[in-house]
């Protein structure tokens, strides 16, 4: 009896890292670090869509995000487009729920109309880029099974290497390997394979800076290795803890986005 | 024509100069070529084009604190006889406070959930633009109005007060083969309402659904015609009958898609008994729409739309001999398929509509490509058919293929 108590005390005194994380826990912490930092978040996002031949298209938008609950919980996203010219002033709002389809709305300036839009396919391309909706706002952790394959260094940083395999066969990828930095849990690299096992999309976090204490990927690339097309994303004016009001995520402001959030 | 835009614009800019001096000001606009040519027959005026024009749009967007000014004006040249088609598309001032806001001036307002089916959207449209292959931004006409928005915990309110009535644009009889029950009467005039109109929309979230109520008191946006005599007419007057609309809508997630439901009662105040053949009968309009994303980069929208005449027996009894007879119930189905290709730079869409009571149909396939981030071009077609007095049937000989090219800056 006495020795058992001693064992418990000893276990409690051991530093946390010694407790082995499961693949699922790594991916949960990674999601929290990558998509949930801060109460709210803002960035001016520039997406360069670059073709195999080098041809370039630019999409520019402001993205605002607010968390409602703990990491992995409900979030609301608000986006306003600046470029290209034919989508200028278009705005877009998502209520993201864990384990349930998102609600999405779009404001179409040409006819001054707010429209609710269907959103069951989170694997579809976000504004024509190589990123999917899920790449932008997250994929449910429970949709895949996660296994730590190994631990290794990537660019000098200690990483968990996690293999994630969709539980259902309806994803466009067969499995993916993610390098998650042990220090801050950001995904530094993600190698996606198609359902036949061939190299598919490759995500890289190209620049990480710390903003208000939150390590933030401000430059990232997603390359489709099969088509040669890639998308480079840069965040500017990134900020956290801005005090974004709940009321922002409404039809009123979808029609007339407040200028203070558009810088 | 030009002075009609320039004068109020200059006045407004002068009035707002102190504000503009400190404001964030952005200029943008586009240059556009738009051509639509007939594929079946020449126009009634003998021309072969439905549309042939060059257009430039200039947009000024200035804001300063709670204030914002937006001015959007077009300079356009029509090659089919109208010549200078310059117009002030929008010109308004916004003031935004925490729980309310207002927009004063010419503005586009769209209510309801329909896709080219209008149940609660009582605001002016440009039907000619729709039928002659013009870009979507020309589907709606602005209203000159004061719009007040109030945002409370329990609901949001949008009140629209228009001191002067603005009608929808209907197709020009020189360009379109419009149904005319009295072609021999050539003396015609138009009487516009001297009053304005008022509308109220109340909306909120109800258990994850976007719900709204609508009330409108004003006039029909498209004219009715009244001959001076039924036996020996010498003159026809077009007029806009008094109308009130009471409606509701809801949209939310259902299954894998979005379900939209809309209903409205059209109270034809100028003919409460339904016995005046020149005034549209009171109606109920019902719309159900469903939109899904069957695969990546594809959207499919389906609509089922019903119109029901309230005083059908009175309508039939009053209808003069020789006039076409509408049915008590009218059922319309529409479908729209939209698909993106090449990283969403190429868009294919097709809209079709079919009405089972008069066989009316309309099909509009369209292909649009963004050559660069600033230049896009569209090629599309409008096909019409049905009975000669139907909304689309009368346009049977007006099938056209259109081209739009726009450079945006």
Largest interface: A-B, 36 and 50 residues
Tell me the number of helical segments of chain A per DSSP (H or I, 4 or more residues long): 4
Kindly identify the CATH topology of chain B: Porin
Judged by helices, strands and strand pairing, the structural class of chain B is mainly beta
Mean pLDDT of chain A: 91
CA(first)-CA(last) distance of chain B: 25 Å
- The level 1 CATH classification of chain A is Mainly Beta
> In terms of per-residue confidence, which ranges of chain A show pLDDT below 50 for 5 or more consecutive residues?
none
CATH architecture of chain B: Beta Barrel
Main β sheet profile of chain A: 13 strands, antiparallel
Q: Count all strands of chain B and give the number.
A: 22
SSE string of chain A, helices as H and strands as E: HHEEEEEEHEEEEEEEH
H-E order of chain B: HHEEEEEEHEEEEEEEEEEEHEEEEE
Oligomer: heterodimer
Rounded to the nearest angstrom, the radius of gyration of chain B is 22 Å
Number of domains of chain A: 1
- The CATH topology of chain A comes to outer membrane lipoprotein receptor (LolB), chain A
* Main beta-sheet strand count, sense and barrel state of chain B: 18 strands, antiparallel, barrel
């Amino acid at each position: 009896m006495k020795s058992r108590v001693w064992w418990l005390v000893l276990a409690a005194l051991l530093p946390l890292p010694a407790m082995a994380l499961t693949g699922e826990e790594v991916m949960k912490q990674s999601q929290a670090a990558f998509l949930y930092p801060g109460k709210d978040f803002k960035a001016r996002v520039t997406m360069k869509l670059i073709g195999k031949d080098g041809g370039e298209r630019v999409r520019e938008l402001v993205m605002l995000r607010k968390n409602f609950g703990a990491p992995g919980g409900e979030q609301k996203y608000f986006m306003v487009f600046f470029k290209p010219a034919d989508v200028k002033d278009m705005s877009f709002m998502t209520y993201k729920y864990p384990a349930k389809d998102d609600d999405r709305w779009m404001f179409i300036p040409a006819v001054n109309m707010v429209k609710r839009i269907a959103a069951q396919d989170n694997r579809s391309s976000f504004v024509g880029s190589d990123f999917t909706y899920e790449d932008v706002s997250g994929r449910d952790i429970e949709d895949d099974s996660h296994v730590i394959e190994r631990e290794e260094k990537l660019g000098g940083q200690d990483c968990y290497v996690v293999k994630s395999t969709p539980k259902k066969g309806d994803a466009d990828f067969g499995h993916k390997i993610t390098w998650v930095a042990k220090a801050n849990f950001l995904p530094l690299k993600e190698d996606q394979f198609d359902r036949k096992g061939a190299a598919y999309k490759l995500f890289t976090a190209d620049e990480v800076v710390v903003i208000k204490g939150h390590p933030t990927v401000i430059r990232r690339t997603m390359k489709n290795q099969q088509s040669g097309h890639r998308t480079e994303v840069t965040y500017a004016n990134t900020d956290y803890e801005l005090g974004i009001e709940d009321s922002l995520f409404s039809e009123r402001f979808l029609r007339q986005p407040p200028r203070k959030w558009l810088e | 024509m030009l002075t009609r835009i320039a004068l109020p614009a200059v006045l407004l800019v002068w009035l707002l100069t102190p504000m503009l001096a400190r404001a964030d000001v952005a200029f943008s606009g586009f240059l556009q070529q738009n051509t639509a040519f007939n594929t079946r027959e020449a126009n009634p005026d003998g021309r072969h084009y439905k549309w042939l024009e060059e257009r430039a749009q200039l947009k000024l967007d200035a804001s300063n604190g709670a204030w914002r000014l937006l001015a959007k004006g077009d300079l356009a040249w029509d090659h089919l006889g109208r010549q200078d088609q310059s117009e002030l598309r929008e010109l308004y001032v916004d003031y935004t406070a925490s729980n309310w806001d207002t927009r004063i001036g010419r503005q586009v307002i769209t209510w309801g959930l329909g896709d080219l089916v209008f149940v609660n959207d009582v605001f002016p449209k440009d039907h000619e633009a729709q039928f002659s292959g013009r870009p979507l931004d020309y589907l709606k006409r602005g209203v000159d109005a004061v719009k007040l928005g109030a945002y409370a915990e329990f609901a949001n309110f949008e009140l629209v007060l228009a001191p002067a009535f603005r009608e929808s644009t209907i197709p020009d009889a020189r360009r379109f083969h419009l149904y005319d029950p009295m072609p021999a009467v050539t003396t015609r005039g138009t009487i516009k309402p001297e009053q304005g109109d008022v509308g109220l929309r109340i909306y909120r979230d109800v258990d994850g659904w976007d719900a709204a109520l609508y009330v409108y008191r004003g006039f029909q946006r498209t004219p009715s015609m009244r001959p001076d005599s039924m036996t020996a007419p010498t003159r026809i007057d077009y007029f806009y009958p008094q109308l009130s609309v009471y409606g509701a809508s809801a949209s939310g997630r259902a299954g894998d898609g979005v379900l939209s439901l809309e209903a409205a009662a059209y109270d034809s105040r100028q003919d409460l008994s339904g016995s005046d053949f020149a005034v549209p009968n009171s109606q109920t309009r019902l719309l159900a729409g469903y939109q899904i994303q069957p695969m990546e980069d594809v959207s499919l929208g389906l609509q089922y739309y019903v119109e029901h005449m309230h005083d059908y027996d009175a309508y039939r009894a009053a209808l003069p001999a020789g006039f076409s007879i509408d049915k008590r119930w009218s059922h319309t189905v529409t479908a729209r398929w939209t698909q993106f290709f090449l990283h969403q730079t190429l868009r294919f869409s097709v809209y079709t509509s079919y009405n089972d009571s008069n066989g009316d149909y309309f099909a509009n396939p369209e292909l649009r490509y963004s050559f660069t981030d600033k230049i896009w071009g569209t090629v599309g077609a409008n096909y019409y058919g049905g009975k000669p007095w139907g909304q689309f049937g009368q346009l049977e000989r007006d099938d056209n293929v259109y081209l739009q090219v726009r450079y945006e800056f």
